[in-house]
Amino acid sequence: MSVARVQRDVLSVEWVKLELIRTAYATRGGLFAGMDPRAVVGWYAAMALAPWFTHNLTTVACLFVVAAAAVVLARVGPLVLGLFVIGLVLELVYLALAATLFGGDLTAVVALLEVTAKLGVLSLASLAAFVSLDPEKLSDALLALRFPPAVAFAVSYGYRMMPILVEEFATVMEGYRLRQLPPQQRGLLGWRVVVHWAVVAVKAFYPIFLNTAKSVRTTVEALEARGFTFATIDPRGRAIRIGSLRLGPLDLAVLAVTAALVAGCYAAGAQWPLHRS
């Protein structure tokens, strides 16, 4: 099989759909997939907040390394990881252009780089945590942390709707491809083809919204027929939902190691301080 054929198969719509499903339903395993969802949410909160209490670039860089190691342990898929890398590279290019075109010096670049690094830590922590939680685990964790039941259900329902929306989008796009011819002349750098598919993608959203509205109505009627509203009010329903949650040795060990690593990052920043002037 040729390299071009392999690349075409990897970058297909079907592969993107499967990667989104794997990401939404946490099917890759990894360190955080076997933990209590409350511990994963607590770990994410600690990693997401840690870089915003300092301006020390050494500390932020160490936290970035810790978050990157967490992404490896969480077995994040290539799709979302690739999107993160592309966004980070484009951000670095933007920093270089901003400093060059607007007369900025090294100080401006360092200031912008600090914010970018902090957002990078937040993004990596989000990838590691939320690709390791399936909809049910995340919903149960929010319910156990005293979030409103409607919020917990909305998160779970939103996760489950993602594959349906992707499937609907692929179906509608295939229908448009069968009914419309591509431009006969591609134009310079194929701009006519890009415009054609951009217009088709916008048109595809209208039937998707209609089909989604029908699915939402059917789901709401089914939930009400099963007593969903009463289950969110009665405390016995909440007790049943979160009854299976248990904090184990792995959860405590990961939280303790994370706390030690965050403290070590701050200690490294104090030992080798690097501040933006």
Question: Can you give a write-up of this model?
Answer:
This protein is mostly helical and 277 residues long. The protein has two domains: 154 residues, no CATH class; 85 residues, no CATH class. It has twelve helices and no strands. Helix 4 packs parallel to helix 6. The longest helix has 35 residues. It is flat and about 65 Å long. The N and C termini lie far apart (55 Å). The relative contact order is 0.15.
Explain the layout of strands and helices.
Layout lengths: L2 H8 L2 H13 L11 H13 L7 H18 L3 H24 L4 H25 L4 H10 L4 H31 L11 H35 L2 H6 L1 H8 L6 H23 L6
Helix pairs in contact: 2-8, 3-6, 3-12, 4-6, 4-12, 5-6, 7-8, 8-9
Roughly what is the average pLDDT, rounded to an integer?
80
- SS strand fraction: under 5%
Instruction: Tell me the Rg in angstroms.
Output: 23 Å
Largest sheet: none
Shape field: flat
Instruction: Give the strand tally.
Output: 0
Structural class: mainly alpha
Tally of DSSP helical segments: 12
Topology pattern, helix = H, strand = E: HHHHHHHHHHHH
**What are the low-pLDDT stretches, counting only 5+ consecutive residues below 50?**
1-9
Percent helix, as a range, is over 70%
How would you classify the quaternary structure? single chain
Give the termini separation. Answer: 55 Å
- In total, the number of domains comes to 2
Question: Which key features would you list for this structure?
Answer:
277 residues, mainly alpha, 12 helices, 77% helix, 0% strand, flat
